[in-house]
Fold this sequence. Notes:
Layout: H1 6-12, E1 19-21, E2 24-26, H2 35-42, H3 44-50, H4 55-58, E3 59-61, E4 67-69, H5 78-94, H6 104-124, H7 128-142, E5 146-149, E6 172-176, E7 180-191, E8 198-201, E9 216-221, E10 227-231, E11 254-265, E12 269-272, H8 278-296, H9 298-315, H10 321-346, E13 349-351, E14 355-357, H11 360-385, H12 388-391, H13 395-399, H14 404-410, H15 419-433, H16 436-447, H17 452-462, H18 465-476
Parallel strand pairs: 1-10, 5-8
Antiparallel strand pairs: 1-2, 3-4, 6-7, 7-11, 8-9, 9-12, 10-11, 13-14
Helix pairs in contact: 5-8, 5-10, 6-7, 6-8, 8-11, 9-10, 9-11, 9-15, 10-11, 11-15, 11-17, 15-16
Amino acid sequence: xxxxxxxxxxxxxxxxxxxxxxxxxxxxxxxxxxxxxxxxxxxxxxxxxxxxxxxxxxxxxxxxxxxxxxxxxxxxxxxxxxxxxxxxxxxxxxxxxxxxxxxxxxxxxxxxxxxxxxxxxxxxxxxxxxxxxxxxxxxxxxxxxxxxxxxxxxxxxxxxxxxxxxxxxxxxxxxxxxxxxxxxxxxxxxxxxxxxxxxxxxxxxxxxxxxxxxxxxxxxxxxxxxxxxxxxxxxxxxxxxxxxxxxxxxxxxxxxxxxxxxxxxxxxxxxxxxxxxxxxxxxxxxxxxxxxxxxxxxxxxxxxxxxxxxxxxxxxxxxxxxxxxxxxxxxxxxxxxxxxxxxxxxxxxxxxxxxxxxxxxxxxxxxxxxxxxxxxxxxxxxxxxxxxxxxxxxxxxxxxxxxxxxxxxxxxxxxxxxxxxxxxxxxxxxxxxxxxxxxxxxxxxxxxxxxxxxxxxxxxxxxxxxxxxxxxxxxxxxxxxxxx
Length: 484
């Protein structure tokens, strides 16, 4: 088996997985009124692989002729990373600015596991690389949908995992057997877990020797006994396409992911007490995933530019000087992100065993640029659009005989722009910036793929300030060493 059809993907989710939504067990995620929207959204990846116009972007051929998803193609070069970024951007655009993520995040983790397993085997004499390669091949050949559970619930963030009053605030090993390990704890913010086939579990931070039982990485089928997914209901209110053109069609579900004495067989264990590599694995994954993140932010920032221009024209203000200034700021925001993303691929480095890693400095600059300026960009688009974003009539009013005529008479814009057309544009901006979906995107801008502070710290650590410092000393004629 290689590429799966959308229907085969949906069928694979009917496996008895333990999912709870608003306190009730979900028997079939493909038929649930809310979660099925997330399933249909995730099927975009499988649809693109079948379409003649998208197939060459969405898939690649192996030397043996097997066709696989491009997401599973291990990047070896700048071009591989750029092609991966282009696919992520195209799929997210189809998803109405919401990333699909059922292969993107999981393959980010698989690439990181390859690199760290190679290093551990070389230095410690372990045999993790064989396990990683077998699991990777299974996922690739079966075209599986993957989730990644990394963020522990953490409890008191000032304390290490082993110092917590509650030992299960971080996922940890509770015992070993001859067949594998048993784990307990919980992860939070686990995206696409309700509609994935496998969950890859990674450490969330660096560890000390006393935390060795928390230094675990492994993978499990979602239907594994003892694994429970408690789905977030955020944004689950009833929606129509007229008022919510994005979020009525597209959704992602996150979970509190509970491991209640879950057994993991040895062949699926990729880190087991090697505490020095917990932080290394966490960081390696994050740098791949931040490249994925800035790639899937591109349709979002493009849409902000497009909405700003469209509403300015409809409102008849596009020639005003202050409007052009705001539009220039939006264009600069979007194009700077695109340039940094492309350069991150261009400036990649190749690590053993031959995997191209995007520039850590440029990836974090790109993510920092996006996150720290997103709310300002949203406010500019709202400014250009007007208050009808939140005060306009509903779909039923437009079609009502008694009041529909008033709406068509009074809510038109520039000559030739009907009220209904203008309201459609307003509703797009509202859904993007002033709805629960808009709030979701604003929170993701701050917290997803690492905090703004984490990105700033990484930028400083990766920057070659010593080279710049040496240049300053040279021009100043300073020969003696200056210690900080």
